[in-house]
Amino acid sequence: MRRTIVRQIIMELLLTVITIALFAGYAVLIIYYRQCWQQIPDYQLTKRFDEYGQRITNQSNTTKITIIIPARNEEQHIGRCLHSIIQQTYPAELFEVIVVDDHSTDNTAVIVQSFAKRNIHCIFLKNFVTAHLNSYKKKAIEIAIAQSTGDLIVTTDADCFMNNNWLQTIASFYETYKPAFIAAPVAINCGNRFLAIFQALDFMTLQGITGASVYKKIHSMCNGANLAYEKIAFNEVSGFKGIDNIASGDDMLLMHKIYQRYPDRVLYLKSREAIVQTQPMDSWKNFFNQRIRWASKADKYDDK
User: SS3 sequence, the chain?
Assistant: First the structure.
């Protein structure tokens, strides 16, 4: 009896020591990430004001950009997303938008087509794909890039929206530093619900880790809701070839491929103007399914 009690006490002490050690290690890691995040320079557009007091930029941009948005049954969100894009301060003649309708059964395509006069194109994935795929999103992006006229590819999601200087900031950053791949910030557009607030805080931490890890070149992280990469770099690494059999990973797996080829040309754009707002998951079940989906590709990375 006494031996059993002693054994239980030893086990409890051992578990306590392990827990404290893990917590301490985690705390040190988070503090390190925070310090790295603070070292990232804030990128700001060169600004001036017109005679009406409105802020305008004084850069003369030359980069042709293609924005790609894969969409499936997004009639509730796609209108707001496209409206925020047509409000961009970036010259309209220097960017195009390609929305790839991924077998939607709602009015997604109809809404997109109503923006046709704004240089926003809708293509249908079903016209290009006849066989079953593991990743329809990767195929959608690949098809859109093949039809694009831009030198810089920018991807976002149909449930996102941006401020007016989003594209201008990305283009300015690209023209200043000439990166092959840009990871940019994403934030949760949360309300008063606990679930949404929890996701916003959790996502904020992930963004801090993303920026810190890319800046220090510790490992590669990004989010497909706000990415930019050179079309030529995408083609040079053969796009999604070799990772097209994985259901997700159109962002981080591609980033890792480009990082392996251009380790010094993968950058993080730290700027309030470049933030993309996205919607939170509407239930705990969907939230956990999202994280399980993200974790499912962990063993596919060469960088463990």
Answer: CHHHHHHHHHHHHHHHHHHHHHHHHHHHHHHHHHHHHHHCCCCCCCEEECCCCCEEECCCCCCCEEEEEEECCCCCCHHHHHHHHHCCCCCHHHEEEEEEECCCCCCHHHHHHCCHHHCEEEEEHHHCCCCCCCCHHHHHHHHHHHHCCCCEEEECCCCCEECCCHHHHHHHHHHHHCCCEEECCEEECCCCCHHHHHHHHHHHHHHHHHHHHHHHCCCCCCCCCCEEEEHHHHHHCCCCCCCCCCCCCCCHHHHHHHHHHCCCCEEECCCHHHCEEECCCCCHHHHHHHHHHHHCCHHHCCCC
Determine contact, residues 136/129, Cβ cutoff 8 Å: yes
Is the pLDDT at 53 greater than 80? The verdict is no
- The amino acid present at 179, given as its one-letter code, is P
**Residue pLDDT, tens place only, 192-216:** 889 899 999 999 999 999 999 999 9
Asked whether residue 61 carries a pLDDT value surpassing 60, the answer given is yes
Q: Are 207 and 221 in contact (CB under 8 A)?
A: no
Q: Strands 65-71, 55-57: parallel, antiparallel or unpaired by DSSP?
A: unpaired
State both tokens at 93: 């003649």
Query: Which pLDDT value is given to residue 48?
Result: 47
Distance CA(227)–CA(147), nearest Å, equals 18
The region of weakest confidence among 54-63, 69-78, 202-211, 214-223 is 54-63
Determine contact, residues 67/75, Cβ cutoff 8 Å. no
- Residue type (1 letter), 185: P
pTM for this prediction:
0.86
Residue owning tokens 């996205």? 278
pLDDT tens profile 107-166: 999 999 999 888 899 999 988 876 676 678 888 999 999 999 999 999 999 999 999 999
